[in-house]
Amino acid sequence: MVLPLTTMLADLHVHTNLSRDSDMTLAEIQAACRSKGLGCVAITDHNHLENALRAPEVLGITVIPGEEIMTAAGEIIGYFLSEPVPPGLSPQETVRRIKAQGGLVCLPHPFDRLRNSRLKAAELKRILGDVDMIEIANARTTLARDNAAAQRFARAHGLPGSAGSDAHTSGEIGRTCLEMAAFASKEQFLESLRGAQVQGGRSLPTAHLATAWIKISKRLRRWR
After folding, report:
1. What is the 8-class DSSP label of residue 81?
2. What is the pLDDT of residues 90-128, one digit of tens each?
3. 75 within 8 A of 65, measured Cβ to Cβ
4. What gap in Å lies between CA 52 and CA 218, rounded to an integer?
């Protein structure tokens, strides 16, 4: 697909080998982004920020440094971070720390009923006033109606929608992404999200088997 120079494809949920269930290096992500024609990627490792901060030097495209943080009640993504936010805090404290460093708050896969890691409904309500965006399309959400529920929720609350592959392997990168206007700041990013269009579709359920195997492999390597 050839896009005008003022727009780009953005995958806003990608993991590297710092995540417990991914083995992808930044070099592998760079190659996949090139092959898929991505102009922007958000690196959102589980409870780690180091590779997200290194990625701009390696990837050669627009990079949003992010972290998918496991709070005491489910996951929250922080975008445009410069410092890691530790896991295990309350959702309210996690949001406070994201905002304190000028970051943006995203709720990933908020209605994916097959994920225990989604933010608990009661906590979602408590922090909703500080949420900047809802992930309305996640390629690893098995049930299409759960992504649709996220889209309806975002519209009902006037929040822009993010989207991403939630890639843990290189073949998943760009599976779900956004066609959005180019941006030069987090404010422009939020504005671009409001006019963005979701592209692509969902990953096969076997993607979850791949991450399960990666977790086992990493444990075996640590034991040896």
Report:
1. -
2. 999 999 999 999 999 999 999 999 999 999 999 999 999
3. no
4. 21
Domains defined along the chain, listed by start:
7-223 (3.20.20.140)
| Per-residue tokens: 217 | 């492999």
Instruction: Return d(Cα 96, Cα 130) in angstroms, integer.
Output: 9
Cβ pair 151, 161 in contact under 8 A: yes
Q: How far apart are CA 103 and CA 83, in angstroms?
A: 10
The whole-angstrom separation of Cα 141 and Cα 149 is 11
pTM greater than the 0.85 cutoff? yes
**CA–CA distance, 93 with 97 (Å, rounded to integer):** 6
Query: In the block, which residue shows the tokens 């422009």?
Result: 188
Q: Is 118 left (phi over 0), alpha (psi -120 to 50) or beta?
A: beta
Contact 46, 16 (CB under 8 A): no
Residue type at position 64: I
Looking at residue 8, what DSSP letter applies? Answer: E
